[in-house]
Design brief:
Layout lengths: L2 H9 L1 H14 L5 H24 L6
Helix pairs in contact: 2-3
Amino acid sequence: MHPVLEAISDVLPMSYAVDGMNEVLHHTDMTATFVRDVLIVAGCALLVLILGAATLRRRTA
């Protein structure tokens, strides 16, 4: 893969989701890699929710 695209894919949460699913397929126990991947994906989801809540306008009547 082109180095620029590889660098971008390293920070996208989808890469960690795929790696986590591969860990589930290959290992029957919880591994440190799986826990790391789950925490990164959950952290990204939480960050998106916080950013969405912060940028939405509140309607007051």
